[in-house]
Amino acid sequence: MSATPFADVLAALTRQRGVLGSMVVSEADGIIVDSNLQIGVKGNVVAALAASLYRKARLSAGAAGLGTANFVQLEAERGRVCAVGRGDLLLVTVAESRANVGLIRVEMLRATQVLET
Amino acid sequence: MTVAVVENWVEEPLKRFVSDARVRLALLLHPSGQVLGQSGFTRAVDVMSACALAAAIHASAGELGRQLEGKPFHVLHHAGKERQIFIAPAQTRRGLYIFLSVFDRESSLGLVQLYYAEFEQRLAAAAPELEPPQVVLAENFERDLNHNLAALFGRA
Predict the structure, then answer these.
(1) DSSP-assigned states of every residue in B86-99
(2) B92 touches A at CB < 8 Å
């Protein structure tokens, strides 16, 4: 099977310290398009729920008159889920608490260019 | 959200699925087309039609899968412009059932798949011990169907 256009971006993100995995997900369906996950990360579950979360965050931002949601970050007890979207695609990253969220954010925003191609 | 069931053990898993997955309609039926539980339908005639169509789709898709791959297709998903249909078999110790769900933009295929997997487990756990097999006889089918529909819509 040939690599998708997202393979390099996902590999680069998952190489970041503390990152457990990253995925390109269809926002409307919550289905994984491509992923690079460490063993133990429930990709399908995270993809479905993160897409739902992002969709609702985007709608909330719109309803509040704030425009488009650029970056959604969920902080949990033992880590973070970050999502950024372009068009119908989302880039989702799962990271431990020790991960450098600033660096991940920059990398994710940069990587969204790939989602637009 | 209203969930109506013919057999009580179906209620909790179905209610939980509808609440979690935010689907518009949900229907659990026997492969013969007899309804066990439903959510979202307001008319008995709609349930009857949906059961007949779901049973027919399941039978046709099963045979198509057997012809193509030697085994029936597991899950069917059809995406319309506004609404989407998800049909899947649910195996319990009481036998195989068919599950049909209709959802819109409030939910997604990923969420439906995710919560369906949980629903299937809950349904299998809730299913009582197998009773002696009952054959669905043609002469009893309509009577049983009417009985189930009356139970669902409060006219039993």
Answers:
(1) EEEEEEETTEEEEE
(2) no
